[in-house]
Amino acid sequence: GQQLNQSPQSMFIQEGEDVSMNCTSSSIFNTWLWYKQDPGEGPVLLIALYKAGELTSNGRLTAQFGITRKDSFLNISASIPSDVGIYFCAGRGTSGSRLTFGEGTQLTVNP
Amino acid sequence: DSGVTQTPKHLITATGQRVTLRCSPRSGDLSVYWYQQSLDQGLQFLIQYYNGEERAKGNILERFSAQQFPDLHSELNLSSLELGDSALYFCASSSGSPANEQFFGPGTRLTVL
After folding, report:
1. Residues of chain B contacting residue A23, judged by C-beta atoms under 8 Å apart
2. Per-residue pLDDT tens digits for B28-82
3. Is the peptide bond before A43 cis (omega within 30 degrees of 0)?
4. Would you say A105 and A86 are in contact if contact means Cβ atoms under 8 Å apart?
5. CB distance B113 to B57 below 8 Å
6. A101 shares contact with chain B (CB less than 8 Å)
7. Which residues of A touch B56 (CB under 8 A)?
C-alpha cells in the first residue's frame, strides 16, 4: 500500500523561529492535506493542495505540492507558543478515496 | 468546531465487552470515515461509508464493524474488546467520494481495562 514518510518526528524550537517539515510518498498523490492536532483533540485541517507545484498560504503557514507529486512540505514562519502540537500530512492517491496519513511531527515551541 | 460530532467523549469498559461509537457528519456531507489513533501513533484508517454504502476498507479488525444510516450518521461497533483496542477513535466527514478535504470530529477516547 501507499506509505508516507514524514520528517522530522519532532522539533524543539524557540519562539520566533521558522519551521519546516515534509512528507514523501512511495507513489504519486493527487491531493496533499496538512492537519494540526492538539492533545486529545481531533485533527484540524490547515491547508489543502490539489495541483503539482501549487503553493498555498494560510496566515503564517505555507505548504507546497511537490512537482513530482510524491512530496509536500509545510513551513511555519515566526512560530508562537500556540503552534505547539502534532502536524500531520495526508495524501490521496490516484485511485480510491482514502487518505494516507504520515506519522506526524511533534512541534514544541519554547517561549 | 468542524461540525462533526462524536459521542461519547470518553468510554471506559472491560475486556470482552462490546461498545458502540456514534458520529454525525457535517451538514450535507455524504462520506464518513473512521480512524483509530493509538498512543503516540498516527491515524490508522478503518473504514469509509458514502451515502449509506461501504466504500473503502482499511485495517479494520473482524471484531469491528460499522454502518451508516439513512440520516447519514454512522456507528462503529467494537466487540470482544481487548486491552490493545484502547485508543482514540475519530470520525471524519467529507462532501463526496473520492474525498478531498476531510473534517474530523473531537474523537472518542476508549479505555479497555
Report:
1. none
2. 999 999 999 998 678 999 999 999 999 999 989 999 999 999 999 999 999 999 9
3. no
4. yes
5. no
6. yes
7. 96-98
